[in-house]
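Dear U.,

For the methods section draft, I wanted the exact inputs and outputs in one place so we can describe them consistently. I've listed the two proteins in the order they'll appear in the manuscript figures. Please don't edit the token lines directly; just add comments below if something needs changing.

First protein:
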Amino acid sequence: MNWFREILSVAISGLTARKVRTLLIMLGPVLGAAGIVAAVGLNESAKGDVRQTLERLGTNLIVASADGSFSAGQAPTLPEDAVERSLNVSTVDRVAGITEIGSLTVLPSQGGKDFFRTIPIPVLTSDQNLLNVLDAKMLHGRFINGADENNIFRSAVIGQDLANDYQYLPGEVRTIDVDGETYGIVGVLENVDLVPKLDTAVIIPKSAAEEDFDVEQKPTTLYVRATEGNVDSTAEALPMAINLGGDEAVTVAVPSDLLEAQGAVDTTLRNILFLMGGLALLVGGVGIANVMSISVIQRSGEIGIRRALGHTKQTIALQFVLEALFVGVLGGIAGVVTGVCVIYLVSSILGWIATLNVPLFLVAGGMALIVSVIAGLYPAWKAARLEPLETLRLG
């Protein structure tokens, strides 16, 4: 036991005597372990954010839009009674339609008109129950209501991103110019994750759109909420219900599928980053072998003296293996801690909930330890082969 304690002390002294060299040796295991932990942790955190978004918004939203044109020479629209037709599907819970108005210029009432004149901003009308169907909320003010429609008020609701671009302040009395007509902003719609185009849109009453821009009240897009567990069957039935077997094509999409596909992409990225972390460990292992081999030459005098004092080849080899073992342990721990810090930092910046995979810590730390020990075997074997007289030649 005293013999092993002595070898342990010599190994620790060998590392602490050359601190900069030891830190450089540890860099490979640190980066490798940190890369593995961070890659998996960030992927899990991102997927957790996607799952949280889906839980909040639901996975039963279906978007049905016109594919082509229902009447030649006009923008693609759905039948005027498309909402009523959709409600005939027994698995449809609620529906809201919007009508996109093309070729309109939207400008703020003050400042930046020349700049915003070149930016296309969607203008649309919608059913009054749009918020209920999308489970959306108003950030400020109110949505278009019956009074706006009945009295042909020129009211406007704008998306949150557009409000930020226009530097709109909550409660501010503000107007916008919609193709030469002045509309007063009555509310700001909070960002809708499943329908991002609404974030930069302007929503006006149907009656005002018909009065000012001669718009036909035919919806271009329907937002449909299916009953739970019937999304696929509802999506299959909607085109037939809307076009009643006609030649007109209806495109149906489920926005939540895009979020789930994003999660799959994140998994692929995680696997790539995991492999990159493993590659960093291998490169670090080569670095450990190289630096420790040079260390054997630099410490040849010490090795020769110890051999002359009676230390065996196995003792010399064990010393260098222990040094590599310490590098792996310390590098693995430091790498795991660094990876956890990266997860918390990135998650806090992006607004995710940090997710830690504790068993992975053992895997990453263990890989760093194994690579370090394997990398230290050759320098240990090289040091064990040195004879006392040979050390005089090495210096």
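Second protein (the one for the lower panel):
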Amino acid sequence: MSKFTGLTDTYTLHNGVEIPCIGLGTWQVPDGDLAYNAVRDALSIGYRHVDTAAVYGNEESVGRAVRDSGIPRDQIFVTSKLWNTVRGYNETKEAFEETLRKLGLDYLDLYLIHWPNPAGFRDRWKEANAETWRAMEDLYKEGRIRAIGISNFLEHHIEALLETAEIIPMVNQIRLCPGDTKADLVAYCRDKGMVIEAYSPFGTGKAFEVPEFKQIAAKYNKTVAQLLVRWSLQMGFLPLPKSTNAARMKENADVFDFELDEDDVAHLAGMTGACGESWDPDTVDW
């Protein structure tokens, strides 16, 4: 069986910080009651890891739910991300302060550069990322952020960042689901000591339309969602399933009482295109 036995079990980042093995994703969850109630429900179910971003527009509701939960702050792992319109040393620090203000928190557990090559910085993305990363390193050294990392970065983006970085990113958060496993990138990041977070582990809903996933899930008497969260854990990823439904959140977390056969893990990994494909970070128009 997996080493994980529940939602509060953790991966350990290369700086020693522990990060809960499953997080609640909040992409496409609008600010207001929906985001607030989703986070409150998740925390009441037992989640201790919440992932948001400046561009999601829901930091205020996410932060209010964390504060209202009654759970000690040091028991909840909160991630946010710097959006593509912001690069540079001072600009990054200002954006971070705005994120903290919206969340209503004193510190972040993890702060990520959301994309490596924004449309507005395409002619100078390397220099822009270097200055942004320097600001994040300083915020980390000041104790304002417990861990810093990246999202959607490919090998050449990371190589460029490491030319000037003092601190190697602790995390790379990328789209990972059956058939979209980015094996070379994952191996590269692991070699650098990064934990791999898997966003859109259900392929933004596409997974629920795949008949073979339903067949494999039935073999284990589990749902497709449970199958894919379990698969993600057995691949060594940290999945971030999104839901605003408390029953579904509970279902997504009920993955610690079974184990997929190695053949099924490999078969799911090889189902190319089953959950769609990732965007190319060098050509996205945002």
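Candidate sentences for the figure legend, describing the second protein: The chain has a mean pLDDT of 97. Residues 10-269 form a domain with the TIM Barrel fold (CATH 3.20.20.100).

Thanks,
Y.
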